[in-house]
Amino acid sequence: MTEQEMWQAVLNNDAGYDGVFFYAVKTTGIYCRPSCKSKPPKKENICFFETSEQARKAGFRPCKRCRSDLIDYQPMKQIAEDVKCKIEKVYREQADLCKKLNEVGITGRRLADIFKDEYGMTPKAYADHLRLAEAKRLLKDTDKKVIDIAYSVGFGSLSAFYSFFKKEEKITPSEYRRESKNKKKTGDFRHE
């Protein structure tokens, strides 16, 4: 790889070159990953290294922004994992869920984008997925009243639960329960 190719990767903040090389800025004494979002330095003030260890040995310190000292530093992935854990803990309580997601410290839109990039769905869709799975389990495995199940999985009303369940499963919760009981008898059930 030529210095010009490396310089172009720095200018493009190309994450595809992270771990392939590092660049250091002589005027600041800092070394970075090619994907670092800091303002690009002047070309004459940089030098390139194959490893972060070489940059450190040459007297440069790691960038605090791109964390060039951490090979597997993936802040967006970490945010998405943290949000996923929060949702799994409090998906049944809408107010608690909103509070926990606000604690992340980024806008709802940005949080949704980060989560969707990592898991292919928004935080709300993931929470709904968990609610639905738990509701289906309770309908199949317990004799709880449908209204009690609705409230236990985080719905504020029976009608909201029925509407959501029917939209997702194409049958009502009561019909799902009946089919579940029939499955136990016949071993054939279309909604798993």
From TrEMBL:
<feature type="domain" description="HTH araC/xylS-type">
    <location>
        <begin position="81"/>
        <end position="179"/>
    </location>
</feature>
<dbReference type="InterPro" id="IPR016220">
    <property type="entry name" value="Me-P-triester_DNA_alkyl-Trfase"/>
</dbReference>
<feature type="region of interest" description="Disordered">
    <location>
        <begin position="173"/>
        <end position="192"/>
    </location>
</feature>
<keyword id="KW-0862">Zinc</keyword>
<dbReference type="GO" id="GO:0043565">
    <property type="term" value="F:sequence-specific DNA binding"/>
</dbReference>
<dbReference type="GO" id="GO:0003700">
    <property type="term" value="F:DNA-binding transcription factor activity"/>
</dbReference>
<keyword id="KW-0804">Transcription</keyword>
<protein>
    <submittedName>
        <fullName>AraC family transcriptional regulator of adaptative response / methylphosphotriester-DNA alkyltransferase methyltransferase</fullName>
    </submittedName>
</protein>
<dbReference type="InterPro" id="IPR020449">
    <property type="entry name" value="Tscrpt_reg_AraC-type_HTH"/>
</dbReference>
<keyword id="KW-0234">DNA repair</keyword>
<dbReference type="InterPro" id="IPR035451">
    <property type="entry name" value="Ada-like_dom_sf"/>
</dbReference>
<dbReference type="GO" id="GO:0006307">
    <property type="term" value="P:DNA alkylation repair"/>
</dbReference>
<dbReference type="GO" id="GO:0032259">
    <property type="term" value="P:methylation"/>
</dbReference>
<dbReference type="InterPro" id="IPR009057">
    <property type="entry name" value="Homeodomain-like_sf"/>
</dbReference>
<dbReference type="InterPro" id="IPR018062">
    <property type="entry name" value="HTH_AraC-typ_CS"/>
</dbReference>
<dbReference type="InterPro" id="IPR004026">
    <property type="entry name" value="Ada_DNA_repair_Zn-bd"/>
</dbReference>
<keyword id="KW-0479">Metal-binding</keyword>
<keyword id="KW-0489">Methyltransferase</keyword>
<keyword id="KW-0808">Transferase</keyword>
<keyword id="KW-0805">Transcription regulation</keyword>
<keyword id="KW-0227">DNA damage</keyword>
<keyword id="KW-0010">Activator</keyword>
<dbReference type="Pfam" id="PF12833">
    <property type="entry name" value="HTH_18"/>
</dbReference>
<dbReference type="GO" id="GO:0008270">
    <property type="term" value="F:zinc ion binding"/>
</dbReference>
<dbReference type="GO" id="GO:0008168">
    <property type="term" value="F:methyltransferase activity"/>
</dbReference>
<dbReference type="Pfam" id="PF02805">
    <property type="entry name" value="Ada_Zn_binding"/>
</dbReference>
<dbReference type="InterPro" id="IPR018060">
    <property type="entry name" value="HTH_AraC"/>
</dbReference>
<keyword id="KW-0238">DNA-binding</keyword>
